[in-house]
Amino acid sequence: MNSRLLPLALFFASLGGPLCNANAQELEGLGGNALHKALSDNAASFWIYDDLAAATKTAKEKRKPMLVLFRCVP
Amino acid sequence: MADPKDAGLRMLLDKFVCVRLVQMYGVDLNKFQFDFVQTWAIFYMNADGTLYGRYGSRSAMQKGSMREISVEGLKDSIQGVLDFHEIYTKAPQAGLRQVAGKQTKYAPKWSRPEKIPTLAKNKVLAKKFTAHATTKNQRNHGVGCIHCHMVASSQLMSLRLSGEPIAEQLVWPYPMPSAVGLQMDPKKRSTVMRVYEGSAAAKAGVKAGDEILRFDGQTIFSTADMQWVLHNAPSEGELSLAVRRGEETKSIPLRLAKDWRRRLGDHRFTNLGICMQIAGFNGRPSGRNSLKRLAIAVGRVHRKRMVGIDLRRHDTIIAIDGNRETMNLGKLTEYLLGVKPGSEIALTRSRFGEEAPKTVRIKVN
After folding, report:
1. Which ranges of B91-211 does DSSP label H, i.e. alpha helix?
2. If you count residue pairs, one on A and one on B, with CB atoms under 8 Å apart, how many are there?
3. pLDDT band at A29; cut points 50, 70, 90
4. Which residues of B touch A62 (CB under 8 A)?
5. How many Å apart are CA B284 and CA A71, to the nearest integer?
6. Strands (E), B246-321
7. Using CA atoms, how far apart are residues A28 and B171, in angstroms rounded to an integer?
8. CATH: 2.60.40.10, 3.30.460.10, 3.30.565.10, 2.30.42.10. Which one for B269-363?
9. DSSP readout, B95-109?
């Protein structure tokens, strides 16, 4: 990069960085997409799919409460 | 599972057995009653079948959801349920009293979605029901799914076609707390963020910052829990609120004025589909004029059904059967549901560029 432009680029980067982070945090905290993602990603090994009876049996054995999610895939 | 950045949510969910139902086929409607128009919904339960509470949003994928839900709010709600689970495990009878109102209130006419006549008669879906979308590929493409929203609209249409009365709560289901003047804090399980001036909540003396502990005697873990209470509330009457304000716990009676449900805004996209099925068109209130008198901007028309009928997209309906009283989408849906199948309605419409309004007649399904 042209050395004369470097300070200018750094200046804009310092402005843009916090703004981008703020937006990301806001979406992370409030946006429905973030929540949907949190409930969906890499979930195959975590969720019992479409088998309420199996989930009930497991919950009884482990004495845990159940969380039943109704949501299409993906 | 979960967002790897949010270890807190993962830790909370690890304390549950999590099950995911990707469609409504075979779901017991005697047990799982919720706002079927939600984008996703959660039930918190004990393995003995007792419902602890609900969580979810109608609009999880939309900007509007920013007013309703959040990851922080979900975590707060889950923590409340885990605390309650300890109480319930130690003393089930005492625990049950706190959530008794959350259990099924009434037996639905059809116990499973696939038994609802308009869904059962859907040949395309029926063929796929036999496959029952259980493979990963089917799930990923939504093949053979009965979606949640289909349950809501199919129940309404099936009741209508069978000539049975349709309960008010089916036409105006699961009101948001805003219906009584409350906007809830999306980052908390049940804290009031704002009270609308002149509303039922404002008249009752609810204040921003109040934490709602119980509503109509039910322990509240989420906005969805409040929707459940409002869904089952009478069309006129009183509900009790127990709130924590600072160090104090207060009991507040909340008065529901007559027809409080019908003042809701247009928020149910399923109503657009119902209007289309019944009358071959749909639409929404048009501009400020619609607050004073009937003004519905036609959105879509069913081309085949509208052959020979002079109604187009962007026309404005200014009278239905001579009635010029203002209607929102919910009221339009309610009106059409009440018209006998096979009979006609008269729509008076105005069109840009034409001087005089014109009346057209439509045969309804």
Report:
1. 92-99, 117-120, 123-131, 136-141, 148-161, 168-171, 200-204
2. 170
3. very low
4. 17
5. 28
6. 248-256, 281-285, 296-301, 316-320
7. 34
8. 2.30.42.10
9. HHHHHGGGS--S--S
Nearest CA in chain A to B57: A32
Contacts of B58 in chain A (CB under 8 A): none
Write out chain B residues lying below 8 Å of A70, CB-based: 21, 24, 27, 32, 34, 38, 40-43, 56, 148
The C-alpha R_g of chain A, in whole angstroms, comes to 22
Instruction: Say what the pTM is.
Output: 0.85
Which of B218, B335, B187, B348 has the alpha carbon at shortest distance from B274? B335
Please state the ipTM of this predicted complex. Answer: 0.88
Closest Cα of chain B to A24: distance in Å?
Answer: 12
Q: Does A23 touch chain B (CB under 8 A)?
A: no
Cβ neighbours of B140 in A, within 8 Å: 73-74
Q: How far is CA B337 from the centre of its chain?
A: 17
For residue B28, the distance in angstroms to the closest alpha carbon of chain A comes to: 11
Among B20, B31, B69, which would you mutate to test the A interface (most chain A Cβ atoms within 10 Å of its Cβ)? B20
How confident is the model over B65-83, as a mean pLDDT? 85
In tens, the pLDDT along B208-260 reads 999 999 999 999 999 999 999 999 999 999 999 999 999 999 999 999 999 89
Give bridge partners of residue B57 from the DSSP assignment: B40
**Strand boundaries in B48-171, DSSP class E:** 51-57
